[in-house]
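Fill-in record for Trehalose 6-phosphate phosphatase.
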Amino acid sequence: MSSLPLIDPDNALFLDFDGTLADLAPRPELVQVEAGLVGTLRTLHRQLGGAVAIVSGRTIAELDAFLAPLQLPTAGVHGAELRDAEGRRLEVPAPDLDRLHRRLEDFAQAHPGLRLERKPMALAVHYRAAPELETLVREQVAQALGDVSGLEMLHGKMVVEVKPAGVTKGSAVELIMRSPPFAGRMPIFAGDDVTDEDGFAMVAHLGGVGVLVGQRPSAATVSVPAPADLRAWLHRSAKALDGGAAGGAGAAGEGGKAGGPSSAHAAGADTHAGTDAGTDIDAAPAAAAAAAPSGSGTNPSASTTSS
Ligand SMILES: [Mg+2]
């Protein structure tokens, strides 16, 4: 059993957005950013010398809108879009998605619970409103993709995406870590989805730490139960880094966030019995957490998304 220490000034931080920084919502556009989160991210960005990046399946434009006015180094569309610490945009060549889009349009329109999303570098079919269509969506996207080269399918939570082949959250982390201010730091990657496993594997390869939000078998080395727990950890770390709010982690975590720290702490104690050490969020090795008996529907297959 290992715990999640507060963030160190020598860390580099990589954060997924949906299901990690923000609670999931019935539809992607309904996701809300908790009050105080942007301020905490700004503090961490300053205290870590700029080494805080967002790594998400969303576009950079969407992420900027959620976190405005903050603009962090960001990998969007699973790394197909990239904005480095200097604000420069590095993009892989845009794939030709028109034909694929046309092929999937009729299918999506025939099923009201589906939403076909066209991104600059990817296509996504969301089925959160019709989870029973998962298998059909997979089949239809695979069929539409056919033998098109340079593109590949990616299966996330309630979504099937088509994106440039070989681009992953792991490759994004690897690329960002090559340059200042990230280079030479110990990376921490926090994420919730199966698409984050590439990020966990990459930070492990680089000697860093993966933080899984949720419970399932994972390459992450620690886990927290829910986005509220992850945010509480960020808030406490920011306060500690920002000047030693000396009452420390415990007090810092108790800020005015609805349902946040106290429930987060309780959840941690529930899930990992006997680990309520009182300061840090308690976190178990992800594999052990996945085997733990809490009622959160352990998912034996990392490639399905019934969460
Ligand atoms: Mg996510």
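KEY FINDING: The pocket of magnesium ion is lined by residues 16, 18-20, 191-193 (CB under 6 Å).
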